[in-house]
Design brief:
Blueprint (H helix, E strand, L loop, with lengths): L1 H7 L7 H8 L3 H15 L3 E4 L3 E4 L8 H5 L9 E4 L5 H10 L6 E5 L21 E9 L9 H15 L6 E3 L3 E4 L2 E12 L5 E9 L17 H5 L5 H22 L5 H6 L7 E5 L4 E9 L5 E5 L2 E5 L5 E4 L4
Parallel strand pairs: 3-4
Antiparallel strand pairs: 1-2, 4-5, 5-9, 6-7, 7-8, 8-9, 10-11, 10-14, 11-12, 12-13
């Protein structure tokens, strides 16, 4: 179906005869593929007698050749999959099978995309970015301190380079615009965290999604909604790779402490009244920032406390 989609992605009308001739198949075969596009990928196709077929909305498909020609191509080998359960899960399978990092897995859609705390990440075909980077970490857990926050900074810089000037960070790994989520990060580990291990950096970005294609349980937005036009995901991936290479290099050489001030300058909830859900009981306080390891610093009843961990959830208080 991808060859047909590449012909249709411009959003213009194409006759069945022209599509069949381009792909070397019959008009009947084109008809069947169009039905599959709608049934399997949930891509509405408009049919007009005398004009042909077009997608309801244009697409800009990911292209390995375009990405390989970009400045970021020498850094990390990448593979684009039409569909996968989860790009993070695919990377973990490949690591278990012996594939050597670094490498990137991208997908046009995820059937079981996931975010932090087991949440579903809505992943319609061809609209957003589903990205996972595998890296090897030598030297134990200390090399991972503040890593998700550093990735957040790189992601924020890539978004701002695309024109998303209002985007900012929310601890520990979300990017928001006017209180609405546009991107999130999920880090997962494999191997021995005390020695040599692998980290999977999963990044999801709402790029061109305009309609809610699933049960999204929080306010959200997309790059297209904020910028007012279709975003070229290939260009965005190239910029994201460039920013990740820069910020991960700083983190590896100097640790999170070298980027701590920059992260705090871009944290949207600095000085705000928040409630932190820790699993045992909620903790309310004022955000003071983060410490040298990336843990959240809160002033709770006049006393500073630090919090870190994968199951924490931060929310603004109504009076903030």
């Amino acid at each position: 179906m991808l060859p047909l989609l590449r012909l249709l992605q411009d959003g213009s009308f194409h006759s069945g005869e022209a599509l069949g001739a381009a792909l070397g198949v019959s008009r009947s075969a084109i008809w069947k593929q169009l039905q599959s596009l709608e049934a399997e990928l949930a891509l509405p196709v408009h049919r007009v007698r005398g004009r042909g077929y077009r997608l309801e909305s244009p697409l800009l498909l990911l292209d390995e050749n375009v990405l390989a020609a970009g400045e970021s191509s020498p850094m990390w080998p990448l593979r684009i999959l039409p569909s996968v359960d989860s790009t993070n899960a695919e990377v973990l399978r490949r690591l278990a099978g012996g594939q050597v990092p670094p490498f990137i897995i991208l997908a046009e859609r995820q059937t079981s995309g996931r975010g932090r705390r087991g949440r579903n990440w809505v992943s319609p075909f061809g609209e957003n970015l589903y990205y996972s980077l595998a890296l090897q970490v030598d030297g134990g857990m200390r090399q991972l301190e503040g890593l998700s926050l550093v990735v957040g900074l790189a992601l924020l810089r890539a978004l701002r380079a695309a024109g998303m000037t209002a985007a900012g960070l929310k601890w520990p790994n979300d990017v928001l615009v006017d209180g609405r989520k546009v991107a999130g990060i999920l880090l997962e580990l494999s191997g021995d965290p005390a020695d040599v291990c692998h980290v999977v950096i999963g990044i999801g970005v709402n790029v061109n999604m305009l309609a809610d294609r699933g049960a999204i349980d929080q306010p959200w937005t997309s790059m297209r909604a904020e910028l007012g036009g279709l975003v070229d995901r290939n260009e965005f991936v190239s910029e994201l790779n460039r920013q990740l290479s820069l910020y991960l290099g700083i983190h590896q050489a100097s640790g999170f402490s070298a980027l701590r001030d920059e992260w705090q300058d871009n944290h949207l909830w600095q000085g705000r009244n928040v409630t932190l859900t820790t699993g045992a009981r909620p903790v309310s306080g004022v955000v003071l920032g983060v410490d040298r390891s990336g843990a959240l610093r809160l002033r709770v009843a006049g006393v500073e406390q630090s919090f870190s961990g994968g199951e924490l959830s931060l929310r603004l208080n109504n009076d903030s």
